[in-house]
Amino acid sequence: MKIVDVRTQLFEYRLGRRRGDAHAPSGRTHQNNALVEILTDTDHVGIAIASTNAVYGIARLKRVLIGADPRQVLGLWQTMVDLIFKSGNSGIMNEALSALDMALWDLKGKAYGEPLWRLLGAKTNRVRAYASGGDMPLNDEQLTAFYSHMASRGFRAAKLKIGLDIEEDARRLALIRDVMTVNGKPPALMVDASEYWHAKQAVRRITWLEERFDLTWVEEPVQRADYRGLATVSSHIKAPVAAGENLKTVLDFQSYIEHGSADIVQVGRMMSGFTGAMQVGNLAYAHGLPCAGSDSEAKVFAHVAAALPNHMILEVHDDQVEEPMLRADNWIEDGHVVLGDSPGLGLTVDREILKAHSIEAPRPGRSGAGWAGRRAGAGLMEVPATDEERRIGALPTDGDE
């Protein structure tokens, strides 16, 4: 079995609801990505979703994959890491590596006729999950509608985007708590500041919030690189600090581990792919720390989460697959992602829908999460959302942008 080609196709689609955080409180209406396919001399094709930025890096990395046996996933991962050593395993090259690694794991599962969760040795195909809205733009009605729906699907935990106005954050968090309370039992509540605060600012804000709520964790309260600041926050609040979502390699986590920067280590597909994410999960396990999985297209990271012995709970943005051209053999049941028995990642592509959403190049402002950059006031003093940002945020995705 050999790899004969690697292909990419850019696509764009309209989101079912606006998504945003402290850096983009009015949110975005579109998402664009790239379908990545690794073709072999058999009928098996490995599939993954990448950022549009990754296409350049994939074109550079594919030359070490052509002619290789795709079942040698770990060896090919190391070959790609070695190739980009000088430029560094970060940015576009990391995004490319991550996507190719995922597609290789998909291929390996297909070659052996097994779903990835089983190939990785997971004992169960059920992964506990929490509802995550990317919900800063949503007004009260939209916010309660989303979390009420997720509660109806059995989710017993939820995470709110916060950071610009702590009193407003508390009011919104109370709305989520109330609509997700079942038989008098409130849900597990998490908050995500999206790296907006500086350390002592975060301590003040979170301490005030903890007087009113029992928080399961506080996510990324300060910048990802400020490992000392994260440790300061962790040592001065009651809730655990969850961090690491935006780090790229297991080596990046060394400072976190050494300085006590993360009480809960975040793991995800963009940490050099599934291979890198498993390294991070194992590092956390070696230090007695739980890990929590980040959101992924079609919830495919659940395959890795199921195999990690210290995995706590998985982020889920929607109870259905958002990408209109994808079908995934997984579903939500009683607040868990349940993985099916289809080989590999269990993804199939509707070619007609893909064709209808294909693009030649990304359009400005539609590149997905993070396109707005860092908001004014970050790490200094909060700049609350303006009335105009709130008005735009409450519009449907086919409204004004």
Please explain how this structure is put together.
This protein has 401 residues and is an alpha/beta fold. It has two domains: 111 residues, Enolase-like, N-terminal domain (Enolase-like, domain 1, 2-Layer Sandwich); 241 residues, Alpha-Beta Barrel (TIM Barrel), CATH 3.20.20. Helices cover 34% and strands 22% of the residues. The protein has 13 helices and 15 strands. Strands 4-5-6-7-8-9-10-11 form an eight-stranded parallel barrel, surrounded by four helices. A three-stranded antiparallel beta sheet has the order 1-2-3. The chain has a two-stranded antiparallel ribbon with strand order 12-15. Helix 1 crosses helix 3, helix 2 runs antiparallel to helix 3 and helix 3 crosses helix 10. The longest helix has 22 residues. It starts with a strand and ends in an 8-residue tail after the last helix.
Low-confidence segments, given as residue ranges, are: none
Distance between the termini: 48 Å
The structural domain count equals: 2
Shape: globular
Number of strands: 15
Beta content comes to 15-25%
The secondary-structure class comes to: alpha/beta
Count of separate DSSP helical elements: 13
CATH class identity of the largest domain: Alpha Beta
Supply Rg. 20 Å
Helix content: 25-40%
Written as H for each helix and E for each strand, in order along the chain, the element string is EEEHHHHEHEHEHEHEHEHEHEEEEEHH
Strand order of the largest sheet: 4-5-6-7-8-9-10-11
And the CATH topology of the largest domain? TIM Barrel
The CATH architecture of the largest domain can be named as Alpha-Beta Barrel
